[in-house]
Design a protein that fits this description.
Elements: H1 2-11, H2 13-43, H3 51-55, H4 58-84, H5 115-119, H6 121-128, H7 130-162, H8 169-173, H9 176-202
Helix pairs in contact: 4-7, 4-9
């Protein structure tokens, strides 16, 4: 039993590490965000809120989904763009001149291939694009979460500062504040990916699948 458990931990160590770090940092964000929000409320002359109430607040939702939105936009866009565009010498690019990989041809399906590949038709069309579809759907959901959380926070602050009536989601969507929040995250995500694409032409990380082999020429394209 212990051997099986250790094998499973080894086989899924990267996922466990990523989601473990996510949960730790999300919990820390909620704690520090709670303290920061209570400081803001105190400065506005309002009563502080308890941590469970903060977790249900627009302030927390806005902060979380604002970041998820940019991450999944970047990832979904990256998956789509790398299907059609190349960067010579980059580990993040498919080889120059390559269109589809032989393994992408459904006629090479085996009994172990996923079922949409074996049945073909519409399931295959969806499955061939399922990774980008999933990422962009998560982006859309995060965008909506950011919009709803941001609207709630905006209305709360406007009521405390000026006693202004609340605005609707559509009105907040048209504010500079909402798009400022989005653009400051979107630009940084695409900058980071662009830097990874370019740096992987010249730099290496031993044993990482995100890097070309240490001995590969700078002109070598792909992993």
């Amino acid at each position: 039993m212990e051997v099986v458990m250790l094998r499973r931990l080894r086989d899924h160590a990267l996922t466990i590490s990523m989601f473990g770090a996510f949960l730790v940092f999300l919990a820390l964000q909620s704690v520090f965000g709670w303290h920061a929000r209570n400081e803001e409320l105190t400065d506005l002359g309002a009563a502080p809120v308890a941590w469970p109430a903060y977790l249900r607040s627009g302030h927390f939702a806005e902060a979380v989904f604002e970041n998820w939105e940019s991450e999944f936009l970047q990832m979904g866009g990256y998956v789509l763009l790398t299907a059609y565009l190349v960067q010579r010498g980059s580990a993040e690019s498919k080889p120059v001149g390559q269109t589809d990989r032989p393994e992408d041809d459904e006629r090479r399906a085996t009994p172990d291939s996923p079922w949409p590949v074996r049945v073909s038709g519409l399931p295959l069309v969806v499955y061939r694009n399922s990774l980008s579809i999933a990422l962009l759907l998560i982006f859309a959901g995060s965008f909506l979460g950011h919009l709803l959380g941001g609207t709630a926070t905006y209305n709360e602050e406007q009521a405390l500062l000026a006693g202004a009536p609340p605005i609707g989601v559509r009105e907040f969507l048209g504010t500079s504040e909402f798009w400022y929040q989005s653009m400051q995250n979107w630009q940084s995500e695409f900058l980071a990916v662009g830097m990874l694409i370019v740096l992987s032409v010249f730099l290496r990380q031993h044993a990482s699948p995100e890097s070309k082999p240490v001995t590969a020429a700078h002109s070598h394209t792909g992993d």
